[in-house]
């Protein structure tokens, strides 16, 4: 794939991934076919900041985990009222990383 396209993708979508993963993402995109470019461009990633805001507002209901696709954890948080509040507070620190991991998994599926 063209280096200019790859750099533009990383500039526009870098906030959706961990910073240490960006060189690996760049390398994988450079080795990818040009035919996958349209699929990569159309892929929607979850915003970690929005996940954090939702976690702070409604984390005890598990909505943050449902939003990123962790249905089992979302049901667990919903049934235990966020682990009696403790799990909800711990997720304030973990939800952004979990969102970025889900985003990298989604990108790997496209590639």
UniProtKB/TrEMBL annotation:
Residue spans crossing the bilayer: 49-68, 74-95
Main location: membrane
Membrane topology: Multi-pass membrane protein
Cited Pfam families: TM2 (PF05154)
Keyword Transmembrane helix in annotation: yes
Domain TM2 span(s) in chain numbering: 45-93
Signal peptide bounds: none
Source domain of life: Bacteria
Compartment(s) of residence: Membrane
The keyword Transmembrane appears for this protein: yes
Cellular component terms per the entry's GO annotation: membrane
UniProt keywords, alphabetically: Membrane, Transmembrane, Transmembrane helix
UniProt protein name: TM2 domain-containing protein
Organism expressing this protein natively: Marivirga lumbricoides
């Amino acid at each position: 794939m063209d280096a200019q396209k790859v750099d533009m993708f990383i500039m526009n979508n870098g906030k959706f991934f961990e910073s240490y993963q960006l060189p690996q993402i760049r390398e994988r995109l450079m080795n990818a076919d040009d035919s996958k470019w349209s699929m990569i461009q159309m892929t929607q990633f979850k915003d970690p900041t929005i996940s954090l805001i939702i976690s702070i507002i409604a984390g005890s209901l598990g909505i943050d985990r449902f939003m990123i696709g962790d249905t089992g954890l979302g049901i667990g948080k919903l049934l235990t009222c966020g682990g009696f509040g403790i799990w909800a507070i711990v997720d304030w620190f973990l939800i952004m990383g979990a969102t970025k991991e889900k985003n990298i998994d989604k990108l790997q599926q496209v590639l």
